[in-house]
Amino acid sequence: MNKKMFYFLAFILLNMISSKDLFEDYYEEAEKIMADMTTLEKIGQMFIGRYSADTAEKQLKKYNVGGFCLFANNIAGHTEEQLIAELEKIQSSSSKIPLSFSVDEEGGTVCRVSLYFRKERFPSPRDSYLKGGIDEILSIEKEKRDLLRKLKFSVNFAPVADISMNQSDYIYYRTLGEDAITTSNYINAVVDDYVEDNFCCCLKHFPGYGNNRNTHDDVAHDYRPLDYLKQNDLIPFVNAIKHEVPMIMVSHNIVHSIDGEYPASISKKMHDLLRIEYGFTGIIITDSLSMGAISKYAVDVPAAVLAVEAGNDIILTSTLEEHINQVIKAYNEDKIDIKLINNAARRVIAWKLKYLSK
Q1: CB pairs under 8 A, 24+ apart, for 64-67?
Q2: Do 11 and 18 meet the contact criterion of CB atoms below 8 Å apart?
Q3: CATH number where 131 lies
Q4: Number of compact structural domains in the chain
Q5: How far apart are CA 88 and CA 152, in angstroms?
Q6: Pick the residue with more confidence: 170 or 100?
Q7: Residue 307's closest CA among 258, 349, 255, 249?
Q8: Beta bridge partners of 250
Q9: How many CB atoms lie within 10 A of CB 191?
Q10: Cα 49-51-54 angle, rounded to 5 deg
Q11: 314 contacts 48 by C-beta, under 8 angstroms
Q12: What is the pLDDT of residues 49-105, one digit of tens each?
């Protein structure tokens, strides 16, 4: 055994010995809940669909869906009281397990809630940092959590841990706009704040967007060497894992130094990096599986099936019924290992017991 392999195995062993599973205190209760669930109900827990007031209750009843993500069009035209009443009504229809209501409230260019329920939208992390450093950011994040919690949201798909210092990059205006160490310090502070307040944040977009193109429209190919990623883009994610970040969203970029065949969100190699090498025990969620970057890679095997096989716990999608039916069909045809479904459902339910239950 060479020295490099020895240190790698020692690193893995140390993580196995010293790291605590984020949700281990909740697995026993989760398994008791799962004992009364069908496999189809477990599959439902693995999905967060795009919210529609017209279809949410029907989808919940039919699929036992795990949660819904709201966008600006779901919030526009509501008073706070109306939105709260609407979400409480949907939540009351979830008999066994609480629903997660999630939203992208990053600040700056991506604001779904403050656009309507604040005099001004929340500033970008970059603007807050330039105004008053980390303290200013944490003040804004507290206001975000207070508002989201009041409106019955339980997950904020933020903060953005991507690194970009070039204003021409697609992702730049959603980032801190600083180097890896500064970004990592910012992310650690925000994660600590959310964890202490028992509100779920979601780090994105693993393993780091860099200067890649917008994957909402088409696939992005990332040819940066793995050593470069480990010394830069991966640093905020690796450090946040040590700070017990509960959820990480995986991008659709094809990162050739890790897996040149599949987008990160449906790459088992990418998920193994996150789970095995970096010891992440929290929730892994896809970026929206309905984005344009995925369609080209779901030819022989449906996209949602690839996402389950890769190791995602939750699939985020704007086409819920299409994707959930893909997984149900594959299960019925014995094309998905039931262990993957059980492991994901167990982790999702344990996460909900920790973060969503009162």
Answers
A1: 64/37, 64/40, 64/96, 64/97, 65/99, 65/320, 65/324, 66/97, 66/99, 66/100, 66/314, 66/348, 67/99, 67/100, 67/101, 67/102, 67/154, 67/155, 67/314
A2: no
A3: 3.20.20.300
A4: 1
A5: 7
A6: 100
A7: 249
A8: 206, 286
A9: 23
A10: 125
A11: yes
A12: 999 999 999 999 999 999 999 999 999 999 999 999 999 999 998 867 999 999 999
For strands 200-201 and 221-222, give the pairing.
Answer: unpaired
Q: How far is the C-alpha of 328 from the C-alpha of 319, rounded, in Å?
A: 15
The three-state secondary structure class of 249 is strand
Residue 351, in any domain of the structure: yes
Q: Tell me which residue range forms the domain holding 170.
A: 103-355
52 within some domain: no
Say what the pTM is: 0.93
CA angle 132, 135, 139 (to 5 degrees): 105
CB-CB neighbours of 213 under 10 Å: 17
Residues 6+ apart with CB under 8 A from 217: 292, 293
User: Which secondary structure element, helix H or strand E, spans residue 85, and what is its range?
Assistant: helix 80-92
Residues 6+ apart with CB under 8 A from 176: 125, 126, 129, 160, 182, 183, 186
Q: What is the mean pLDDT of residues 237-250?
A: 98
Q: Residue 48 pairs with which residues in a beta bridge?
A: 67, 316
Strands 105-107 and 110-111: antiparallel
Query: 10-41 as b/e, with b when 16 or more CB fall inside 10 Å?
Result: eeeeebeeeeeebbeebbeebeebbeebebbb
Q: Does 35 fall in a domain?
A: no
Q: How far apart are CA 321 and CA 315, in angstroms?
A: 12
* Residue of 197, 288, 180, 194 whose CA lies nearest to 238: 180
How does DSSP assign 284-316, residue by residue?
A: EEESPTTSTTTGGG-SSS-HHHHHHHHT-SBEE
What is the residue type of 141?
E
Question: What local confidence, expressed as pLDDT, does residue 357 receive?
Answer: 78
Please give the C-alpha separations between residue 158 and each of 58, 66, 195, 248, 256, in angstroms, as whole numbers.
28, 19, 13, 9, 26
Cis-peptide, bond into residue 98, ω within 30° of zero = no
Q: Does residue 12 sit within a domain?
A: no
Backbone angles phi, psi at 34, to 5 degrees: -65, -25
Provide the 3-class DSSP secondary structure of residue 103: strand
Residue 123, preceding bond cis, omega within 30 degrees? no
